[in-house]
Amino acid sequence: MLSLNIRTDKREFIYRQIYNQLKREILLHHFLPNEQLPSKRELSETLNVSVNSVNSAYQQLLAEGYIYSKERSGFFVEKLDTISPSFGTTHTLSPELIEPAESGGHLISFSHMSADRSAFPFDNWLNCERKVLKLKNSDLSDDPTRFPQGIYSVRRTIARFLSLTRGVNSFPEQIVLGSGTQVLVQMLIQLLPVSSTYAMEDPGYRRVYQLLKNQKADIKEIKLDKKGISVNEIKRINPNIVYVTPSHQFPTGIVMPISRRIQLLNWASEAENRYIIEDDYDSEFKYGFDTIPSLQGLDSFERVIYIGTFSKSILPGLRISYMVLPQHLVKKFRERFGFFMQTCNGLAQLTLQNFIDSGEYQKHIKHMRQIYSERRMLLIEELEKRFAGSITIYGAKAGLHFMATFETKRSAEEIIIRAKKDKLELYSLNRCYLSQDNLFNKPAFILGFANLPVEKIGEAVDRLYRAVFQ
Amino acid sequence: MLSLNIRTDKREFIYRQIYNQLKREILLHHFLPNEQLPSKRELSETLNVSVNSVNSAYQQLLAEGYIYSKERSGFFVEKLDTISPSFGTTHTLSPELIEPAESGGHLISFSHMSADRSAFPFDNWLNCERKVLKLKNSDLSDDPTRFPQGIYSVRRTIARFLSLTRGVNSFPEQIVLGSGTQVLVQMLIQLLPVSSTYAMEDPGYRRVYQLLKNQKADIKEIKLDKKGISVNEIKRINPNIVYVTPSHQFPTGIVMPISRRIQLLNWASEAENRYIIEDDYDSEFKYGFDTIPSLQGLDSFERVIYIGTFSKSILPGLRISYMVLPQHLVKKFRERFGFFMQTCNGLAQLTLQNFIDSGEYQKHIKHMRQIYSERRMLLIEELEKRFAGSITIYGAKAGLHFMATFETKRSAEEIIIRAKKDKLELYSLNRCYLSQDNLFNKPAFILGFANLPVEKIGEAVDRLYRAVFQ
Fold first, then answer.
1. Which of A104, A304, B225, B255 could staple A296 via S-S, CB 3.0–4.6 A?
2. Whole-complex ipTM
């Protein structure tokens, strides 16, 4: 005789109680295989519940395959293999995996990966978003399988914008959007010649280096000289693909001069399988001079793949990056990634388009350039005053970070640990070395100022001083 | 003597005109290497422009490395290699690459990859967004490098939600967000044993199949029987990883019964390196019965990786999917992808969290379930009436599509071509076969109804009838 414990005072629906208890009984093999269940009427009378409740429970058990029905005979228990069901067992989280629920509160940060949220014109952004929603753009409901490269009109806006501001030559058809540079690079390596050797600037962008390593790519690290990546070294080591940050080398801040650019382009044009990946990650921010036109704009051999992002200029969390492919690679992209769903949020794509087309974006950049320029200047002033002769600053008047070395007996690691205790977030240059040792015989740091408000600069420099010397 | 053509009636700034023309002259080697440029004062007098304009032009050329300066001597032209500069050359787009700027207007669509935008409560969504912005959540400005798995509080909401609605057992620490299932699967295969053999349902989800193929994974195609993927076939072919869609097999619509689930889990528990990837892509939508609890919830051996998405239930363009990893794979994820930036839009993540926590999401799902249920019923009624005995419909009362075969002499390809001419978008089952031939000896189609408003069902069925028979 079936004994179920149904309580009308529980918040759970009656039918769910019947369903759950029967399911449990069946899984624990308290029924024989093919055993007949009581009829719906019978069970409803036994439990003193409505036939409807029993029926709903039976239907759900039927849909999930716990029972089967025979016409005019009733319901029977399925023959099930034994399993150790996990219900009832307690799950515990391994202590080493526990994450802090809150992100680091009262920290002062020299992170170079941040942007200033407080200066972002959210109201204007929301206005653009509302406009997009009002237009009932059909691109918004369309599935992302229709446009693996991103929404066409958005790419049209980006192509126009890149031509104007970066001298990049492109048709919308050549642009591929992606939710981060890493996503794009992951696709790109599948488009480039199969047994390629990649060269990267050292020190350089470790996140891409790691990505290539994970993909088992063959990577060579190339030293920098004062003009950036050394073309002589490239010729000696003989990779066929070179990943560079010519507008503002990461992390050293070198702007690659035109002479080196020409050498690099000429090198690339000398063989069929050579490519340059130009990562223009913070090109919007130059102080005291205009932005530096892209390498891509000088390339007439379709050898440059241009990569850019709106993460630095809008918000890191926007997750809209793009690459401009040479036309022969567009063809390859469509063959290989025609099945791939676009990864960028659709509403964010269209809002961004509106934000650019309405001129708000350029206004925002201009505004941020002033803010960042002032911050950069004040920070450098403050550093030079506080550290007197014991600091050297490197890098062009550009971007959202610069590099500095310190005359101290402490190691970079020790300084970082001390800074951390003092709630100062600090990144050493060591994290950017791909293979070689420190270029300098003293600790070097990447000092980002994007998320460092003017009123906190003094305190930030104090904490840094304490970590370096006291 | 330097001859530049400066026009004050042009919209371009004077300094840009000087800069552009000098740059061109230098690139075309109209200067000798190391040739001295006229002094700023001299040039300003020749051109009849301000010294400031000339200075700005020189500073920009200096920053880009076209010229160099010697203290007290002036400015000199850099020695540059020859390059074929692309400026001036006209770029043309290869005709085969041209995309239509507009997406397909007055189409009626049986696409199964869409969602109904018109029923989405954009106002509520925007309200949630505004709330998020008001809270000035620091997660919003934080860089996505801080939370490679996604914002913690968002994952906490998703874990709670999955437990409630899908019986999924998880801690927020086990959840990884990603801008699409494809992005997640790409990472996942790097966490699973290196020389794995994957098994997929055939017919099945070609987008993942293609992705695995691109990554050079070893994949076996496994036939279905009426309970879904055949465990006997799995044992015979002996893969170690099985990718399944048990809640609503794509595309056949089979709900995997509990007997098969237990067999599959038991198979997975029998060896160390075995895993089940459970893709629960449209689990929210069941009509006439409750949702089917996940496979993951029955797994006590940490063998199931659960993958889900909000693309079907909110908007395809949202691009927020997630996977729930067994704890030992979380550890591996952090080792391998600690450097990877989270790909989901930050504002969308937080808005989604608010949307779920405020109960709006469940309200929306309930509403859509009614809409889709009605649509599904009307569409089936209409199809059965119009095609009388010449149609067979397959698939449980679930999801956003079902399968149908037709008694006709026409091939699926011919029907699709005819439908296209008649502005009807139609997908054949053939696109879902991974290796084998058509299961049926007649044309079979995936009929999606998510983007098919009730008032267009009659017209859609008419067009389909014409394509199949007339």
1. A304
2. 0.89
